[in-house]
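pinging the channel bc i need a second pair of eyes. not urgent but kinda urgent?? the chain im working w is below, pasted from the shared doc
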Amino acid sequence: MKILRGISLYKLVPVFLFGVGITLFIVFLNNLGFSNLIEHLSELSVFAIIVFIVNASLISVFPAIAWYVNQKSDGNPISIYDSIKSHVMGFPINVMTPSAYLGSEPLKIFYIVQKYGYKTSRVIATLMVTKFQEFASLMLVLMISLIWLISKEEALSKGQEILFVCVGTILIAGLTILLYVYANGYKPITKLFLVMKLLKRDRLIRIANKIKSVEETVHVCINKRWKSYLFAQFITLFSAVSILLRPVIIPAFSGRHMDLMSLQNIALIYIVANIIFSFQIIPCSLGVFEYGLYGLSGLTKESVAMFSVFTRVSDLVLFLVGLVLLVHFGLTEFLSAKKARKELKAISKDNNSSG
């Protein structure tokens, strides 16, 4: 008990959730039978795994290129290499954060601001725009996949259709509202903090002023730099397409699990995966992804297990590569949310005082 007293509940929750995820994942594979799984895996070549990992890495690479485009259009250019590097370093943080693959933004901002000396608010703004574009591309492909499935007779059960349409509508509506709000320069977060300043807290007023600068830059990126915005948006589409095509890789390199090759199942896997990861609570949606995909897609347990193992192996490889880069550049403090906020706050102060 004395040991537990020194550990905050905030730190124990992610560990507990990760433990739950690992347990669910092992139970799912165990129900299939490890001997059967190994037999299926033995049919595939190492080259198939490499192709799958390369494809998985593109999910981070294309948004990194889009961020490079947004930074350049904002007049604060960065190298593509640094942008990609920051996204790869952020992967371990995103995976372990109970959120919709968010969490590494402080690291990316810190790395770019520290290296280039740009104003923090401008870097935050372009990253916000890039994340919006990334999510918009995911939702666009999801909407197209959903419309195509609904148009196919008996492709979806009534329950699947209602669930996918409801969740898809919520996600797409939220995205549309955000685009409308920022395109018209309403600055919602700034206004929220200005209302909160009635509490007469000087800190809230200072935060509101910083957020105002960020939201103004977001508005400019969407409205006045629309050519660059659309180009960056187009680039992020390749990230969504790489996710869509992932299931095809497995049957392409073996004669089995051909159900992963059908257009109907490719669309289903994409929709289910994005819904699960958009509402992620357990880190990397371990176990939840496997059971959710099996329950909602109609795929065989063997195919779900095979796809899951490939996905988790690629996650592990990218996690280790990101971790090595974090250690190499001395940025492991960003694995702790509290220390990450402290580092970002410190560099933001230096940045603002020098500016």
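so Residues 4 and 223 are 52 Å apart (CA to CA). and Residues 44-354 form one domain. — does that match what u expected or am i reading it wrong
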